[in-house]
Design brief:
alpha/beta; Rossmann fold; five-stranded parallel sheet
Length: 158
């Protein structure tokens, strides 16, 4: 029997990092014990730091370097000069994507609908709470919002 290699092989020796999004206490503990990064979508900015502390505490208990675990956050945004229009766009997107009432999804997932200044402050609140990676998912006019996000990134000095 011939031996073969499935390729392409991972760029990083040892394979790619594996991130986990567990939000509940057991998921945060699991992340600390086993994974390379924490990537939730549920914590509010004011909850993020304490939950990240749980992840890092679990890593320490497991004999791992807590600082080696990437701290990420996954959020959905609609950035618009008209907050009411942003809110309506977000609700429409969430209903079409999840097939659930928008309020139900907004209670479960972190979403921002509003102005550029509001979005910048909201994103920064996650960075201030310890997130080093913030994944932005846009609803609505994606190209325009990507340009705005690039402006926010520059304004924050990132």
């Amino acid at each position: 029997m011939k031996q073969g290699t499935v390729g392409p092989t991972p760029h990083r020796p040892g394979g790619p990092p594996i991130w986990y999004g567990g939000f509940q206490p057991a998921g945060r503990a699991r992340t600390g014990r086993l994974y390379d990064g924490w990537f939730p979508s549920q914590p509010k900015p004011e909850e993020y730091a304490a939950q990240l502390k749980d992840v890092r505490s679990a890593a320490r208990t497991a004999g791992r370097d807590p600082a080696a675990i990437a701290a990420a956050m996954y959020v959905t945004l609609v950035i618009d000069d008209d907050p009411a229009r942003a809110d309506a766009t977000m609700n429409d997107y969430l209903v079409r994507y999840y097939r659930l009432p928008a309020a139900e999804t907004r209670d479960r997932e972190r979403c921002f609908a509003g102005t550029e200044a509001g979005a910048a402050a909201w994103i920064k609140s996650y960075a201030d709470a310890g997130a080093s990676h913030i994944m932005l998912r846009f609803a609505g006019d994606i190209e325009r919002q990507l340009d705005i996000a690039a402006r926010i990134k520059r304004a924050l000095g990132w």
